[in-house]
Design a protein that fits this description.
The structure is a single chain. This protein is an alpha/beta fold and 315 residues long. The protein has a single domain, classed as Metallo-beta-lactamase, Chain A, CATH 3.60.15.10. The protein has an 8-stranded mixed beta sheet with strand order 1-8-7-6-5-4-3-2. The protein has a 5-stranded mixed beta sheet with strand order 9-10-11-12-13, covered by helices on one side. Strand 11 and strand 12 form a beta hairpin. Helix 8 packs across helix 9. The longest helix is centred in the last third of the chain and has 23 residues.
């Protein structure tokens, strides 16, 4: 399926503070658990045991925007349950990037009447890695296999100019691309009035980073642009919602990792002998086993190319 391109001129933002409210939901079957971040904005935690990412629902005057298509299983749940938040239809679903837990549910949403869209780099990334990743995932997951497709459905609409803006009388929503970070197509969703930033996996809250599609040297520079927005609320693709500390912590972890590996490379230490100890300030982002992160950083530094530009297997 070919995607069409979107374009829209940038507009000025008006910043204002708003407070955090919680929508409590009992843990019972068919009950949608959502945290109300502001009026008409909900953060939906993903079930990590099922591989799901977080979702965000944004209410416009006449319709809803969903951030990330998720896996097909979660997409089906949300299609059935989202009316618990608002009776308005889901008109748009935004893929923050091309990874399976954020985009493989695309077709579920389009069959329900929504339009999927993304930054151009998301489709480019899919064209680069699919259908291999789709087929590998279908072999592992019933929700993907049940779609009986030979390739990953692409977002239907694409934009190149950043930001792309949706607005009506109730709010403005900006969709930004700041550069190659976690993937070549990372999209951010910014609500300027409420100062809410949705980051996808360009900033996560916890040891949930995957680095092999990344540009590790550029990633902190992308996060600097997100930090410059000075968001009050940061809604990550994985982990709990929070504030600016998610962006600054993610940036610091990546910078510390890169610097530590670079120091070992300059000392002539072979990869097999590199055992990193990162500062305590990085503890929220440090996985139990740093080997994969170290390997990606070492490859990027020694081969003088972004890790994502090198041959690699995605796991």
């Amino acid at each position: 399926m070919k995607s069409r391109r979107l374009s829209a001129p940038p507009v000025l933002a008006v910043a204002a503070a708003c407070f955090l409210l919680l929508l409590t939901a009992a843990a019972q079957p068919n009950r949608l658990v959502a945290h109300r971040i502001a009026r008409g904005v909900w953060f939906l935690p993903g079930d990590a045991s099922k591989g799901y990412c977080n979702n965000i629902v944004i209410e416009m005057r006449d319709y809803l925007i969903v951030v990330d298509a998720n896996y097909p299983g979660r997409a089906r749940e949300l299609v059935a349950q989202i009316h618990q938040l608002s009776p308005k239809p889901v008109l748009f679903v935004f893929d923050t990037h091309a990874h399976r837990d954020h985009a493989y549910g695309n077709i579920v949403w389009t069959q329900a009447g929504a339009t999927t869209f993304a930054y151009q780099g998301v489709a480019d990334e899919m064209d680069r890695y699919e259908p291999r990743r789709w087929l590998d995932t279908a072999a592992q997951r019933q929700d993907v296999r049940s779609l009986h497709l030979a390739d990953a459905p692409r977002p239907q609409l694409l934009f190149r100019q950043s930001p792309f803006i949706l607005r009506d009388s109730t709010r403005e929503v900006r969709f930004y691309f700041f550069g190659w970070a976690h993937t070549r197509g990372d999209g951010f969703v910014w609500l300027p009035r409420e100062r809410i930033l949705c980051t996808g996996d360009a900033a996560v809250n916890g040891p949930r980073n995957k680095l092999w599609d990344a540009n590790l040297a550029n990633w902190p520079l992308v996060l600097e642009q997100a930090i410059a927005l000075q968001p009050r609320f940061v809604l990550p693709g994985h982990g709990d919602a929070g504030g600016l500390e998610i962006l600054t912590g993610q940036k610091t972890f990546l910078s510390d990792l890169y610097a530590a590996v670079q120091e070992q490379v300059r000392a002539g230490t072979p990869l097999a002998r590199i055992h990193l100890t990162l500062p305590a300030r990085d503890s929220n982002w440090i996985p139990r086993d740093l080997t994969g992160d170290t390997d990606a950083a070492y490859a990027e530094i020694t081969r003088h190319q972004p890790a994502g530009a090198l041959p690699h297997e995605w796991k």
